[in-house]
Design a protein that fits this description.
Radius of gyration: 33 Å
Distance between the termini: 50 Å
Protein name: GPI ethanolamine phosphate transferase 2 isoform X3
InterPro entries: Alkaline_phosphatase_core_sf (IPR017850), Phosphodiest/P_Trfase (IPR002591), PIG-G_N (IPR037674), PIGG/GPI7 (IPR039527), PIGG/GPI7_C (IPR045687)
CATH topology of the domain at 80-329: Alkaline Phosphatase, subunit A
Strand order of the largest sheet: 4-3-5-1-6-7-2-8
Pfam families: Phosphodiest, PIGO_PIGG
Keywords: Endoplasmic reticulum, Glycoprotein, GPI-anchor biosynthesis, Membrane, Transferase, Transmembrane, Transmembrane helix
Helix content: 55-70%
Largest sheet: 8 strands, mixed
Shape: globular
Membrane topology: Multi-pass membrane protein
């Protein structure tokens, strides 16, 4: 076989393997993160008609002025709007159990006393409260989308809407905008990203500094008196971030939580008394208080636990429109149910891709005929969505006419069940309309019709919610098989290359380093980590696997270091200029990694199943230790270690001095912030603390960016003047110990950039993290420096890929 033919074959196999890998990865991604079918466009007048194949939208309605379009909707819907204005108050991160309790138990006494006005509204039946279950991921933007559109976005929605955060799906704000509503927004700037250009007035605030719990809400409330006195808006959105920040700082039991709840209660009181209870206000106003998600005991969110998905929903209107309070708060709803409920209350079409259901407690606000009409409209909307999800779903003169279960969709009778449930409710409804009944019998039949509609709606709702997360097993399996085949092709190519090298190199055994135990274990770790990703339980407790494997690997490296030391003479701990001194430095680095790793392992009980177990952080909090002292010591040592790492350069160049000075100033600002702003945890942050944090951000940003941009240009100029003498002082540079670099300028530039980046990251985390985690940041920095010192000692022969993999593993455990 000629060399050219061998090269051509290897190239062909490599290209084929890459192509198969891309194809397999694409199938896996689209199978594991399915893109749900969605209805395009916005709902219009067709949403008030039965969803037959012939219920097409009248295109001329797009040209109608807002008041005529609103009249058309009211005429077709047969449901007059119950309210004229809407105040949507979003309290970011507020768990529903803070206001409504949990498992039929009242809320915490301290929380109830912090919101006396809200609790009085609930007790008097003026407000209706619900536990609104949020779908994961429990972060702000997707939850706001669910609230206003009633749809649950797929995980690939972000990829398909890359570089844009505008909500393109049909939603309530878009429907209100078509009717000419004047909308005002004050609060989280996420609303401005989702709905650019539709607000008459707005003042967006950002969560730039998570420890700001006061100014971020004052910037919202400062507009409240003015907006409540105005009569030119139809929708007022208030999004408060302070409570979420309180949770991130100190968790659910933070001493700042009760004052923040009291502040939110005052806002509710002000809105309710100025609009709903104001006799001079002729417009009927509905106040809706919601939270986008809940929070864990530690104040975090993003997952799917009950604490994170338990969001609040309050409807506050006039007392005449309230029903029995006790029967309302005992039932939970889905967060997506908010969109259809508000659409029906305000007389606008339900958004196209809504999967929510009209909230049962709110349907009592309508008259008998209107209640049934509202449920009918909600059912029609879900039928349209079912037709989109399942193309074989029958569409003739009626949505289920001529339906047959064998029309190409194997759903174990799901579609037939939906048709049966819908037709039962529709027949009862038609019979109720056409038949003159007595009042008592009418009420009884009405209850049967409502129950029949809700049976269909709930079944369709659950099916659509699960459909959004269904994963086609065949597509995923094909993707996995394709990627496996690609890996086998790559292994065959590598084997062929090695075989070719073996044939050409007669003395190959003299040129290849033997495999050692640490190298074999490093390769085994790769397969262990890959295999562990196949189990959800392993993924949830991933940190335990990493801690065990890294500790084992460190012990193997320590063993190899000791074996290397035993081959030579006794180690002189002060002789850092000879090989044995380097061995001592390597051993010290390993011991540092092991000790820091063990402390980090016991600092927090991570994962999902073992968070309740005791750990170091819980012990420190329960013992009422002086956390501020630990925080100050951590910042001080972080500054010392970072400056020490910079001082290890062989030459104290001017750029190093400038970088070190800027870093020192940033560290002193962090110390000043801790002393001045966090000496009393019961006091909320103020504007001065926020300004100081912004100054720290700016200083660290300028230092880091300036170092990245300037050092690669300045270092070669300064080093060229003393190049010969510099090479003789390589022992002072950690990365120089072990091998002479052919590019000292590049090496030193990367070293300075790395030191500045790591140090700035640690200082930023010390600024943002809770005081209990300050020591964790210090231990992470020590691990980073220890791993760097260990790998910079190039005395032990090892394969290059092994050294790079070991560095990746150590950085991985730092991230965990």
């Amino acid at each position: 076989m000629s060399s050219s033919l061998t090269c051509n074959r290897l190239t062909l196999f490599t290209v084929a393997a890459v192509a198969v890998q891309i194809i397999g990865l694409s199938f896996f991604v689209f199978g594991f993160f399915p893109v749900k079918p969605a209805l395009s466009g916005d709902s219009g007048s067709e949403s008030f008609r039965s969803p037959t194949c012939y219920s097409l939208r009248n295109e001329s309605e797009k040209d109608l002025p807002p008041h005529e379009l609103q009249s058309l909707y009211q005429e077709l819907s047969d449901i007059p709007p119950l309210f004229d204005r809407l105040v949507l108050m979003v309290i970011d991160g507020l768990p529903a159990e803070f206001v409504l309790g949990k498992d039929e138990r009242p809320p915490n006494q301290a929380f109830m006393e912090s919101m006396p006005y809200t609790q009085s509204l609930l007790a008097n039946g003026v407000a209706k409260g619900y536990h609104a279950k949020a779908a994961p991921p429990t972060v702000t933007m997707p939850r706001l989308k669910a609230i206003v559109s009633g749809a649950i976005g797929g995980f690939l929605d972000v990829a398909f809407n890359f570089n844009t955060q505008v909500l393109l799906d049909d939603n309530l704000l878009g429907q209100f905008f078509k009717l000419g509503w004047k909308m005002v927004m004050c609060g989280d700037e996420t609303w401005l990203k989702l709905f650019p250009g539709i607000f008459t007035r707005h003042d967006g605030v950002s969560s730039f500094f998570v420890k700001d719990t006061v100014e971020v809400d004052k910037n919202v409330s400062r507009h409240l008196s003015y907006e409540l006195s105005k009569n030119d808006w139809d929708l007022l959105i208030l999004h408060y971030l302070g409570l979420d920040h309180v949770g991130h700082i100190g968790g659910r039991n933070s001493p700042l939580m009760a004052p923040k709840l009291m502040e939110m209660d005052e806002v509710v009181k002000m809105i309710h008394s100025s609009t709903i209870m104001n006799p001079d206000d002729k417009k009927r106003t509905l106040l809706v208080v919601v939270s986008d998600h809940g929070m864990t005991e530690n104040g975090n969110h993003g997952g799917s636990s009950y604490e994170e998905t338990d969001s609040l929903l309050l409807f506050i209107g006039s007392k005449s429109q309230a029903s029995d309070f006790g029967s309302v708060i005992s039932n939970g709803v889905n967060q997506v149910d908010i969109a259809p409920t508000l659409a029906l209350l305000f007389g606008v079409p339900i958004p196209h891709n809504n999967v929510g259901v009209m909230i049962p407690g709110m349907i009592d606000s309508f008259k008998d005929m209107q209640q049934l009409r509202a449920l009918q409209l909600n059912s029609w909307q879900l039928l349209r969505l079912l037709q989109k999800q399942v193309p074989s779903f029958s569409c003739r003169s009626g949505p289920c006419d001529g339906f047959s279960g064998d029309q190409g969709y194997n759903s174990n009778g799901s579609m037939e069940k939906f048709c049966r449930l819908y037709l039962r409710a529709a027949v009862l409804h038609d019979s109720w309309i056409s038949t003159e009944l007595s009042r008592s019998d009418g009420r009884e039949d009405k209850s049967r019709i409502i129950a029949a509609y809700y049976e269909f709606l709930i079944n369709a709702n659950q099916w659509l919610l699960h459909k959004a997360t269904d994963k086609p097993a065949k597509v995923i399996a094909f993707g996995v098989v394709s990627m496996t085949l690609s890996c086998l092709i790559f292994f065959a190519v590598i084997y062929s290359i090695i075989q070719e090298i073996c044939l050409r190199e007669k003395q190959l055994s003299n040129g290849i380093l033997p495999w050692h135990l640490d190298e074999v274990f490093s390769l085994a770790v790769i397969f262990i980590l890959v295999i562990s990703m196949g189990s959800s339980s392993m993924v949830e407790e991933e940190q335990y696997i990493w801690h065990f494997l890294i500790s084992t690997l460190n012990m193997l490296l320590l063993r190899k270091t000791v074996q290397f030391f035993q081959k030579g003479s006794a180690c002189d701990s002060f002789a850092l200029l000879n090989g044995h001194g380097r061995i001592c430095l390597r051993a010290s680095s390993i011991f540092t990694l092991l000790i820091c790793g063990r402390i980090l392992r016991g600092w927090h009980q991570g994962g999902v199943n073992w968070t309740y177990l005791p750990d170091i952080s819980k012990w420190l909090e329960q013992s009422e230790s002086d956390l501020q002292l630990i925080q100050l010591a951590s910042v001080f040592l972080t500054i010392i270690f970072s400056l020490l790492s910079l001082s290890l350069l062989g030459r104290r160049t001017k750029i190093v001095l400038v970088v070190g000075f800027n870093f020192l100033m940033s560290g002193l600002l962090v110390l000043h912030h801790i002393v001045k702003s966090e000496h009393n945890a019961s006091l909320p942050s103020n504007n001065a603390a926020t300004s100081l944090a912004q100054m720290i951000y700016a200083t660290l940003g300028v230092t880091t960016v300036g170092t990245v941009l300037a050092v690669p240009w300045i270092m070669p100029i300064q080093l060229s003047e003393t190049c010969s003498s510099y090479h003789n002082s390589s022992i002072s540079h950690p990365s120089k110990i072990g091998s002479e670099s052919q590019y000292p300028e590049l090496r030193d530039s990367l070293y300075i950039i790395g030191c500045v980046y790591v140090g700035s990251w640690c200082l930023l985390q010390l600024l943002l993290q809770q005081p209990i985690n300050s020591a964790v940041m210090l231990l992470i920095l020590m691990q980073i420096l220890a791993s760097f010192l260990f790998f910079s000692q190039g005395m032990l022969q090892r394969k290059q890929w092994v050294e790079e993999w070991l560095a990746i593993l150590h950085w991985g455990i730092v991230i965990l």
